[in-house]
Amino acid sequence: CRPARPAGLQSLLGWTKVRVLVPRGGKNLKLVEMAGRNAEAFLRRQADEGRLRLEALQAALDLPALPRTIEGFDISNTGGEESVGSLVVFRDGRPDKDSYRRFLIRTVEGPNDVASLEEVLVRRYRKLLDEKAPLPDLVMVDGGKPQLGAAEKALAALGLSRLPLVSLAKREEILFTPERRDGLRLDRTSPALKLIQAVRDETHRFAIALHRGRREKRSFASRLDGIPGIGPKRKSALLARYGSIEAIRDAPRTELEALVGAAGAKKVRERLGRKRE
Predict the structure, then answer these.
(1) How far apart (Å, rounded) are the C-alpha atoms in residues 251 and 40?
(2) Do 185 and 242 share a structural domain?
(3) 220: Cβ–Cβ under 8 A, 6 or more apart, which residues?
(4) Which helix (H) or strand (E) is 247 found in, with range?
């Protein structure tokens, strides 16, 4: 069949120099049709590879169902400061970023990743139970036996001991489950290992990004502490508007004055310096 004429084509052509051609026959039409077939084949291959990874992971861990929904957890902090927990969700082998969640650690003081992980899992699955929301097919925690134990304790406290669980130890790339406490080594080329590594890596990346953001926010606020006329509300306004000390330095004087007043802008520029004119 012939390609459909894009809606709003004339509006598009009005502001772009790119020419949009809709072939009606001949060589160009055959090229477009071939490109469409290639795209469909590529998507089918991707779907097949994703299914292969899910089936391989189900077999490797002896899971009762295909792990179509996997939730991964990690903890990040610096010496116990600004500790955060991350949750990422994979659906059918792909990240579902709209379902990602962050957790600020409430009950644990100091650098205790194991206790922090337990807190995060209890909060996550208590919420799902309260909302009668679907549970994942597999829970993955970043770490080894201690992290596995913390996750087991959290799930048991909620009556979810049967929820499939796995931990992936860093560097050694050993999988631990409640049934395989001695560890399970998969071939480095295993589709199952590739999938669980992808979940682990994304969980770790998200946790690091959350922690870095909180640390930078704290550093930002501390640089503004003690400036006369810059209280919590104005600090929050500066953070929301600029996001970094460098951006404040580069801000035009009139812009700063509109945000924190002339006197406040002067004090801020005196404390932080100003961009070179």
Answers:
(1) 49
(2) no
(3) 239, 243, 244, 245
(4) helix 245-250
Question: For position 277, what pLDDT does the model report?
Answer: 44
**Tokens 């508007």 -> residue:** 241
Do 76 and 149 lie in one domain? The reply is yes
Bridge partners of 141? 73, 167
Q: Shortest CA distance to 179 belongs to which of 148, 157, 156?
A: 148
Assigned token pair, 82: 């600004």
Kindly state the greatest CA–CA separation across the chain. 74
| DSSP summary character for residue 3 | P
User: For residue 39, what pLDDT is reported?
Assistant: 62
Same domain, 123 and 191: yes
Are 180 and 135 within one domain?
yes
Instruction: Check which CATH number belongs to the domain holding 145 and give it.
Output: 3.30.420.340
Structural domain boundaries, residue 253 = 225-272
Q: Is residue 55 a part of any domain in this protein?
A: no
pLDDT for 170 equals 78
Contact 136, 71 (CB under 8 A): yes
As given in the structure block, the two tokens for residue 211 are 């922690």
Question: If the chain, 277 residues long, is cut into consecutive pieces of 10 residues, what is the mean pLDDT of each piece?
Answer: 59 62 73 67 55 95 97 80 86 96 88 93 98 98 95 98 94 92 92 95 86 61 71 78 76 85 83 61
What is the domain count for the chain?
2
Tell me: do 84 and 192 sit in the same domain.
yes
* Residues 203 and 255 reside in one and the same domain: no
Rounded to a whole number of angstroms, the CA Rg of the chain reads 26
Give the CATH number for residue 239.
1.10.150.20
| Pairing status of strand 138-142 against strand 69-78 | parallel
Q: Closest Cα to residue 219, out of 74, 76, 75, 78?
A: 78
Q: Token digits for 140?
A: 């993955």
> Is residue 144 within 8 Å of 169, Cβ to Cβ?
yes
CB atoms within 10 A of CB 84: 24
